Amino acid sequence: MEKKEYSRWENLTKKFNQYWNQALKTDNEDYFKRLDIADIISMKSLFSNINNLITLEVTNKFIDYICKLGVINSEQADKIKEEVDNQHANTNGYDVQNKDNKIIAEVKCNIPVEEKSFGVAQKTAIKKDLDGLRFGKTKSKDINISEYYKFMVMQDLPNVREAMQKLYGEDCVELTNKNINKEQIYIVYIKI
Question: In this structure, how many other beta carbons lie within 10 angstroms of the beta carbon of residue 142?
Answer without folding.
Answer: 8
